[in-house]
Amino acid sequence: MKGNNIFYMLGQSFKSLWRNGIMTIASITVLMSCLVLIGSFSLLVYNINVNLAEIGSLQEIVVFCDTDADEATVQQIGEQIAVMPNVSDCVFVSKEEALQSERERYQEYAYLLDDLENSNPLPDSYRVTYEDNNEVSALVYQLEELNGVYRVRNRADIAESIENVKNGVSFIFIWFLAILFVVSIFIIINTIKLAVESRHREIAAMRYIGATNFFMTTPFLLEGAIIGLVAAGLAYLIEYELYQYIFRSIGTSYNIIRIIPFQQMSGILAIGTVAIGVFAGMLASRISLNKYMKV
User: Fold this and answer.
1) In Å, how far are 195, 234, 240 from 288, measured between CA atoms?
2) What is the distance between the alpha carbons of residues 22 and 291, in angstroms, rounded to a whole number?
3) For 101-133, what is each residue's pLDDT tens digit?
């Protein structure tokens, strides 16, 4: 009997969706657009965070020694840096290691660096990782004052600029998505409202013979869930195609940017998209039922 009830409720849900075809399509389209934007923004933020973590650490200061500094001077610089406040790590990079790193970075033109083997113009350096962003200026000043140091490269300003841009984009997207989410909820509410009104007499008859609220409302909740599920499936397919297009375009054209393969995020993205879609559909249905059936 319970199995028959489930099939009956599903049947009623699909009939209602078909009966209110235009509103159903509108509900699916708006919710799908919302889910595409949510998924795309999530993928964007994830890729930004991964690239920030791989940009040779933006929380890093590079201290270049004088090209004519002797070994004792270079070693003394390292010892002085290691005891400075706000320094969490100090790694020495020899001029030979720096040249090899450039070879690996520009593999296509590595042959141009072969002539520099015996006359390496690159200096010894130290990669300094700091802890507190607020004390970077003081640390940079101390490093610049060291004897035998000719230049200090600080990426804190780049990190701050990127973080500000990311926060600004996040703020705009969150508000835009919130508005779009509310609009999609509103449209689904109206879709369920039409379904409730079209079955008003049937619902009244079921109430008269003692049908439970669960029996009467479940088809409408399933209707919202089906809308959310279809919208989530379409959104996932669109996100996949868009991401693959971007991956092929940017991933092969700009070696400085790393695009994470879609497969690494597909599982979480699919679960999140379906969960949000079904939740939005059932939430809208519940709101509509509370208003028009006083459940």
Assistant:
1) 10, 24, 33
2) 22
3) 767 766 655 555 555 556 677 888 998 888 777
